[in-house]
Structures are given as C-alpha cells and as structure tokens.
Design goal:
single chain; 683 residues; mainly alpha; 6-stranded mixed sheet; binds zinc ion
Length: 683
C-alpha cells in the first residue's frame, strides 16, 4: 500500500525536488505544457510562493499561450513586482496590450512599485493601443519615480512618442538624455525615418551618432529608398563599413524598383553571401520589369547553385513563364513543387492556373483549379480570365455565376474577365447585364478598363452609337483604351464620322499615336476617300509615328526563342529560309493569295513595309515546324494582334502540315486546327 501520511509526504518531497530541479535548471527541461501543468498544480497546493515568479518566467521562455500564464498569475494571491513585470511582458510581447494594461492598473491599485522593467513594456503597449493619454501617464510615473534618467526607460519613451507620432515630444526626451546608447540613437533616427519621413533631420542625427551600428545604417539607407532617393541611398551603401545581408538585399530591392537592373546585378554579384531573399528580389524584379528571359536565366542559375526555392520564387518564375509562354519550364516548376512536397497554396495555385492558361494549356489550368480547396477571388479571376482569353466565353460566365454559390465576392478584375468573355464572343445582352450589376448588386464602381471593354463589346457588335453614348455618359474622363476601342470598332464597321471623332480625342490624350493614324488611314481607304488617306499618310511620315515592333516567341526544349519582324539574324539561317519557302510554296498550292491590302494599309498590327511572309509569327511557326516533332503542338506568343493575313495563313498551315498551332496575341488565344481557328474569325 502506498497510502498513509508518510508516503504522501515522501511523494511531496520528491515532487518538490523535481520542481526545484525543473525550475532552476538552465537547460529547458520544462518543455511540455503537460509538465508545466503538473508543476502548476503542485506549486499552488504546496503554497510555494517563492517559486511562482520562476514558474512565470518559464511560461514566458516557452512562449506558452498568454492566457495560460495569465490564469496562473491570477491564482497568485499577492504577486510581487517581479511577477507583475513578468506577466506584463508576456502579455505585451504576445500581442495582448489591452490585458497588459489592465494588469498595470491592478499593479497601480495594489501599490506595487513600478520599476524600469515595467515602464518600457507599458510604453510599448500604449503604442500598440495608440493610447497617447496613458502613455503620458507612464511618462509621469517614470518622472515621479526618478526613472526618467534611465536610458532603458527614456528610449522606450522616445519609441512611445514616435509611435504616437508626437515627434517634438520624442525629440525633447532624446535631447534631455544625459547619456545615450546605440538603442536610443536608433530609436530617434528610426522615428524620423519611418514616422515623419524627415530624411534631412534623420541624416543629420545619423552623422552625429557616435558609434553607428549596421542596424542604423540599414534604417537610414532604407529611408532614402522609401522616398525614392536612390542616389543618396547608394552613396550611403558605398560608405557603409559593414554591408550585411539585409543591407545588400534592401539596396538591391531599391535598384530593382527604379528599374536599374545593372546596379542591382552589381550588388548581387558582389554579395559575399546570398539568401533566398536576394535571389527572389532580383528574379521578381526582373519579372516586374518585363525582363522575363533574364528572370528565367537567373532562375536557372539559382537552381544550378542548389538554392532551395520558396513560394516567392515559384510565383515569380511561373509568372515569367506565363508571360513568355514557356510551358515546358512552367511544367518543370510544377513538377518541382510536387517532387519537393511543396504545399500548393492558393497563391501558387493561382500562379499555376495563370501560367497554364497563358501558355495555352487550359485543360491543365482547369485541373489545378478544381483540385484547390480554398479558392480565393484571385484564383477565380485567373481561371475566368484564362477561359475568356481562350474564347471559352460560356464557361467563363458559368464560373462567374458559380462564384456566388461558393460565396466568393467578385471584384473589379472578375467583372473585367467576364466582360472580356462577352466581348470575345459578342454576347451583348449578357455583357450589359454584368456591367449593370457592378453598381447594383456587386457594389463596384466601373473603372476605365470596364468602360473600354463595354465600348469594345458594343462597337464590335455594330452598336457604335450605343458605344458612343456610353462614353459620353462616363462619370470619369475616358482614356486611350476607351477611344481606341471605339476607333477599332469604326474600322470594322466603316464608320468614318465616329472614327474621326475618336481619332481627335486619341491624339489629345496620346501624342505618341499608338498606330491610330494607321487605322484612320485604313478607314479612309476602305471608304474610298483617297484624299484623306493621303493626308493622314503624309502626317504619319512627317511625325515618324512610333510603332511597337512585332515580336513573337516560341519555346523549344525549355528555351525561349524570340523573333522580330524580318529578323535578320534568324533569316541568315538557311534552314529557316528553306522552311519559309516551303510554307509559301505549299500555301500557294492550296490557292492562298497574300492579302496585299494588309501589307499596305494595316500598319497598326505590324510594320507593313515588309513582306507579309516575314511577320514575326510566321518566322516563329517556321522555326517550330523545324524544331518540334511532327504532330507536336506549336505554341507561339505574340506581342501585337495577329493580322488578318497571318490569321488566314496560319489556319491553312495548321491543315497543310497537320499541326495544332496555338497563338497567344495581345488580347486572346487562337487555337488553329485543321484549317480553322477557335476564335471563329472574331477577334
Ligand atoms: Zn501578320
Ligand atoms: Zn483566331
């Protein structure tokens, strides 16, 4: 039998011994909440008050949830100041400033002495609660207790005032400090940098600061980056005696933001050590700057060096793949995710859906979409836009309706996707319904893009007057996209009057003329108004109107090849020339005649002084025919819209060579198969 008082006392003795051992051992033996709870019960039963603070300290070390520590604290009958401080610290650092505050009140009510440990945590809680009034009480207490000369307390007062955006008060505390340490200097400088963006004063203080540490260097440098002064930031960076990883990453991010990739690369190459953030900063910067090929080759270098990817890397690279139409690499990244057992977060899932649909693999995009369990609005948007781009308008609208059932609220981008779907298929009534629903049921304000899409939808369908009325009734100033859509519609339907009107507005808005005069000249030519045609052409010659050169790309074995209009370098390739000849010979055999009118008139789509057979997508297709296995799908990405002639030719090529050809142009996808296109010639 192990009952009886003797045995009980023996158990207690043992327990006491264990308790002491656990609480005083420097290595953290008290690791589980279970042991902690056993101790808890024992300490209270045995009334071992002197061990309570030790116990609380353990709670804080182990980052136990604050409510547990709190409940233990409430069971201590008369806590001492050490115990009060410990619980306040636990509550404040675990994001419970309100509770920290009520303990502080109790401390005050019970006349327990505050000290220089209590006040800094209270000051921080005040900042978190934006409670300046209470902050001033804390300051008063500090003064009353003569703690306002304590560096620790004073620094927290600086942080308090800066946190409540009371810069002069913070400065006064700083100026009156008899002795200042690095932390105090850092607090005041960081306040000027981050709270009032006063880089002048921050810099002045930084110069006066006696022992500048790397933390402070970083604060000042990132301050200059935040105000966009890269000159000053890089000057400081050069002068910094120690350049740590954070500093290098920060300055690199700054260079990337302003598009100075040369400088960013220089920092990157000279860094003694790089972490995944360094790689991600440069890769995602390159992607955002539109330098997709560079981003991809940097990514390859990252893989070669065996750096482990994280979510940011994956999302950036997938986005580059999407833009480049680099399906093979995109697939590889996807298989990497699977191989490494990466969790496909909704962010990665969205990037995958976007990549697959932009690379023309809509089916896989849908599979990825279906599998994801928590779908947010961005994911739905990627899917809807993907379907719209591929001309799957009905499905896109079904998805749009389905969102409601899954209680995901559509946002502006969702509506834009749905309107695009309507516009690609000429679904006027549906489009109008969705557009109206923005204000009525969705609570969204139509933006310029929505108006542009509506004008495009109405205009293409021949409802030019309705489109014009919509523009006139716009509550915001119409932009280039809106008038450009109307001008484009005027070209389809041969409306000279509205075309002239839109053209004038366009020139007012965009001096560069993004090819509008070319469209107008075409409209004149089609209407037989040769005098006006000649006038516009003359004007174009005089003004040397800017035209974005056409460019198409194709990915072969994971490498992206780009083709410009009549790409001289590529045309030096005998193989390619032979294939181009072969293509035109076989096209002629099936009765194809190049639409020379396109060569002459349609300057907007691509530079037309050059022969049609050298349009960039034809070069890319020819290249694809040479370098892919027979029967393989050829995928092309083009920066401009496909011209009418290339569209006809590509349809025929798909039949003659028995290839599926997928072309993504500026606005949508064309799936060419057996002599016809998925767009139904409506694009
Ligand atoms: Zn063309
Ligand atoms: Zn098409």
């Amino acid at each position: 039998m192990n009952g009886g008082p003797r045995a009980l006392s023996a158990t207690f003795n043992r327990m006491h011994h264990i308790a002491l051992h656990l609480l005083y051992s420097s290595n953290q033996t008290v690791t589980t909440l279970f042991t902690l709870k056993q101790l808890h019960v024992y300490l209270l039963k045995a009334q071992l008050h002197h061990l309570h603070s030790k116990f609380l300290l353990h709670c804080s070390k182990l980052l136990i949830n604050p409510s547990y520590a709190s409940s233990f604290f409430t069971q201590i009958p008369t806590p001492n100041s050490f115990e009060f401080n410990t619980i306040i610290r636990i509550l404040q650092t675990s994001g419970e400033p309100q509770q920290a505050l009520s303990i502080f009140r109790r401390m005050h009510d019970e006349n327990v002495q505050f000290d220089h440990f209590t006040l800094p945590f209270m000051a921080r809680a005040c900042v978190e609660l934006s409670n300046l009034g209470l902050g001033q009480v804390v300051h008063g207490q500090a003064a009353r207790l003569g703690l306002d000369a304590d560096v620790f307390v004073q620094t927290s007062l600086i942080e308090l005032y800066m946190g409540c955006e009371c810069v002069p008060e913070a400065r006064q505390v700083f100026d009156e400090m008899p002795k200042r340490d690095v932390v105090a200097w850092t607090a005041i400088i960081s306040g000027y940098v981050n709270k009032c963006r006063d880089m002048g004063v921050a810099c002045q203080l930084f110069e006066e600061m006696p022992d500048k540490d790397v933390v402070c260097w970083n604060i000042v440098i990132s301050g200059f980056i935040k105000i966009g002064d890269m000159g000053k930031a890089s000057e400081l960076f050069c002068n910094a005696p120690i350049k740590d990883l954070l500093m290098c990453n920060t300055i690199m991010a700054g260079f990337v933001t302003v598009g100075d990739f040369e400088a960013a690369y220089k920092v990157f190459d000279e860094m003694p050590r790089r972490d995944v953030v360094s790689w991600n900063t440069l890769i995602s910067g390159l992607v955002q700057g539109g330098l997709f090929n560079e981003a991809i080759s940097l990514f390859r270098r990252m893989m070669k060096e065996g750096i482990e990817l994280n979510e940011v890397t994956i999302v950036s690279v997938l986005s580059a793949c999407a833009q480049m139409g680099a399906l093979d690499l995109g697939r590889w990244v996807h298989s990497y995710i699977d191989r490494m057992g990466f969790r496909v977060s909704v962010l990665i899932g969205t990037a995958l859906v976007d990549m697959y649909s932009k690379c023309g693999a809509l089916k896989v995009a849908r599979q990825v979409f279906e599998v994801l369990s928590d779908k947010d609005v961005a994911l739905w948007n990627a899917m809807i836009l993907g379907l719209a781009m591929h001309g799957k308008s009905k499905e896109a609208l079904e998805f749009f309706d389905q969102m409601e059932g899954e209680s995901v609220r559509p946002n502006e981008v969702t509506v834009l996707g749905a309107l695009c779907a309507c516009s690609h298929a000429g679904l006027v009534t549906e489009g109008q319904r969705i557009f109206r629903s923005m204000g009525s049921t969705l609570g969204l304000k139509p933006r310029l893009e929505h108006y542009g899409c509506m004008v495009d939808l109405l205009g293409r369908a021949g409802l030019l007057n309705e489109a014009y009325e919509l523009i006139k009734g716009m509550p915001i100033e119409p932009h280039v996209g809106v008038w450009g859509a109307l001008l484009g519609a005027c070209k389809i339907h041969g409306n000279v009057e509205l075309a002239e009107l839109s053209f004038e507005r366009l020139l007012e808005l965009d001096q560069r003329d993004g090819g509008y005069s070319a469209i107008l000249s075409n409209i004149y030519a089609n209407a037989g108004r040769w005098g006006d045609f000649a006038r516009v052409r003359e004007m174009m010659r005089e003004r040397m109107i800017y035209k974005e050169p056409g460019c198409s790309s194709i990915e072969i074995n994971g490498e992206v090849h780009e083709f410009g209009v009549r790409d001289k370098a590529h045309l030096r390739s005998k193989e390619l020339c032979k294939m181009l000849e072969e293509i035109s010979r076989r096209l002629k055999m099936v009765g194809y005649v190049a639409k020379t009118s396109e060569v002459f008139f349609d300057v907007q789509e691509e530079e037309k002084e050059l022969a049609l057979c050298y349009h960039s997508e034809k070069l890319a297709i020819a290249y694809g025919l040479i370098h892919t296995d027979s029967g393989a799908t050829i995928r092309i990405v083009k920066n401009l819209r496909v011209c009418g002639d290339c569209h006809t030719a590509t349809k025929l090529i798909s039949k003659i060579f028995d290839r599926e050809i997928v072309v993504r142009d500026r606005s949508r996808f064309h799936h060419f198969r057996e002599g016809s296109c998925s767009c139904g010639d409506y694009w």
